[in-house]
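Fill in residues.
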């Protein structure tokens, strides 16, 4: 459920992506600094990489404690991982638990693919355009993993190959 008023189009900060980084940025900027924030998420739920990668058998290759937020002792006490290397279902369940505990979804706008972001020097603001909305903000935080999307569309003929020195060439 989305609680964002469509008439509100200007924010202190816009965060792109509702994965681990995006949720944490929202908590820091909104709850700790008191900023008026909005998270824009392409999917229809939180999870980031774990929202998109739901194939059978998907699980992390890092111990579950690395997938825990450590900013809240209460949160650490309330959540117990069932496995040392949790699967994607449990990781998404954890992220939804965090989103509920800190009431994050009220400031997340789902199904909003960012198609452009342009800094306007005269007003010292960002203009952020999604496929169906326009927003302005002073701070823009990109917390989205874009390489997953890019790799899904690579073909052997159009593969991006990193070169020494950080430059890329088409391979």
């Amino acid at each position: 459920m989305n609680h964002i008023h469509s008439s509100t189009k200007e924010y202190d900060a816009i965060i792109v992506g509702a994965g681990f980084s995006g949720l944490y940025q929202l908590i820091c900027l909104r709850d700790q600094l008191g900023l008026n924030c909005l998270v824009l998420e392409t999917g229809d739920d939180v999870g980031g990489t774990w929202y998109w990668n739901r194939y059978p058998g998907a699980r992390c290759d890092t111990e579950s404690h690395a997938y825990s937020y450590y900013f809240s002792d209460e949160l650490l006490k309330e959540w117990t991982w069932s496995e040392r290397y949790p699967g994607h279902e449990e990781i998404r369940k954890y992220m939804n638990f965090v989103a509920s505990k800190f009431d994050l979804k009220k400031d997340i706008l789902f199904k909003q693919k960012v198609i452009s972001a342009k800094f306007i020097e005269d007003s010292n603001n960002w203009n952020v355009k999604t496929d169906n909305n326009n927003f302005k903000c002073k701070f823009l935080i990109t917390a989205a993993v874009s390489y997953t999307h890019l790799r899904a569309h690579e073909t052997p003929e159009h593969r991006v190959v990193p070169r020494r020195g950080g430059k890329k060439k088409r391979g």
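Residues 19 and 49 are 7 Å apart (CA to CA).
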